[in-house]
Specification:
three-stranded antiparallel sheet; alpha/beta; 368 residues; 18% strand
Length: 368
């Protein structure tokens, strides 16, 4: 099998779960946060850096790699793992969200999506079959069905039609999948902001019997309370014995809420994007290290962190790097932010094992 999932805590439809995913490139302890390497690289960091910070799996993007350098070149290199020299698991998303973000540059039909490249304006067409063909060539351990991400807000009829199309596309993706013994194909639940559509989407995808399921179309601008309410009304309809992945969520307050609702996997560009803008995640909250107040602060970035950055560099030095526009500052802060977030995930896993998740959730539910 391409993937196996073992629950290490009592199986239940909702609530925090401790699990273990096994793929041909290694084991993933869940709940897990996946750093995003959109273009076969996590910005500013090397694969060695990612191993040091504790990344067990990373995410790359089908849309971007299809456009550049092209899936044929990646396949010729031996697949993504060889191409980027990363020996641990990889997940590729299908490109559905990126197509969604090209609102003025794409046309959606039953057959697929016609769009113009954000790079050069050239015209392209992605169908469910073509997206899976690209993902098969890229060779990630976990691949995603091609779906339509519904914008917020969207009227009920649009969301209903779109959700039904996503289910039909999922069936086409499964039929097109050529490497099921090497790559696990996950379905993506849609439904917009409507509980009945979320339930229907989940049930239709479960009928297709995928090895894992993602919850898509959330964190697209809706209020936090609405997102959590919809998540709460989605996970109970997903299989207990298969991984559940909440797409595009990485803020700690959202992560702990997702875990409390039965989610196992998360991804987001947030920790590295915030780092490139001079913001660090610390045990005391977020620190905007590029601010002038840190010009003579020779204390560690986070006194409670044992990462390479906090053990060797002061806030004053990091602030200097940003003021001087040195790339090293971006790298060091990205390194720290991922280390911090992945360390928190370890803390969360331990708390679930010990039956103390409520205390950890309280600690991070208001993290800013």
């Amino acid at each position: 099998m391409a993937l196996s999932f073992e629950l290490l805590t009592e199986p239940k439809p909702v609530g925090p779960r401790r699990g273990r995913i096994t793929t041909r490139h290694g084991t993933i302890e869940t709940p897990v946060f996946m750093p995003v390497g959109t273009q076969a690289t996590v910005k500013t960091l090397t694969p060695r850096d990612l191993q040091e910070v504790g990344a067990e799996i990373i995410l790359s993007n089908t849309y971007h790699l299809y456009l550049r350098p092209g899936e044929d070149l990646v396949a010729e290199a031996g697949g993504l793992h060889s191409f980027m020299s990363w020996g641990r698991p990889i997940l590729t998303d299908s490109g559905g969200f990126q197509v969604f973000s090209l609102a003025g540059l794409r046309k959606i039909t039953e057959e697929g999506v016609e769009f113009r490249s954000h790079l050069d304006g050239s015209k392209h067409f992605l169908s469910p079959e073509r997206a899976i063909q690209v993902e098969n060539a890229l060779g990630a351990d976990i691949i995603m069905c091609f779906d339509e991400c519904i914008p917020y807000p969207a009227d009920y009829q649009y969301a209903k039609d779109s959700t039904a199309r996503t289910s039909r596309w999922a069936a086409r993706c499964k039929r097109a999948h050529q490497r099921p013994e090497e790559q696990a194909l996950f379905g993506i639940v849609q439904g917009g902001m409507y509980k009945d559509l979320r339930k229907r989407s989940a049930e239709e995808l479960v009928e297709l019997d995928f090895p894992g399921y993602a919850v898509g179309g959330l964190s697209v601008g809706e209020p936090k309370g609405l997102m959590l309410e919809l998540l709460e009304n989605t996970t109970p309809f997903l299989p207990v014995d298969k991984p559940r992945y909440l797409m595009g969520v990485g803020s700690l307050d959202y992560v702990v809420e997702g875990i409390d609702r039965g989610i196992d996997m998360f991804d987001c560009v947030l920790p590295t994007r915030m780092a490139r803008h001079g913001t660090a995640f610390t045990s005391q909250g977020r620190v905007v290290v590029k601010n002038a107040e840190y010009a003579r602060d020779f204390s560690p970035l986070d006194p409670e962190c044992d990462c390479y950055v906090c053990q060797n560099f002061s806030r004053a030095y990091l602030r200097h790097l940003f003021a001087a526009r040195e790339f090293t500052g971006l790298r060091l802060l990205s390194y720290h932010n991922l280390y911090f977030l992945l360390a928190v995930m370890k803390e969360i896993r331990r708390s679930i094992e010990a039956g103390q998740f409520k205390e950890v959730k309280k600690k991070y539910s208001s993290y800013r």
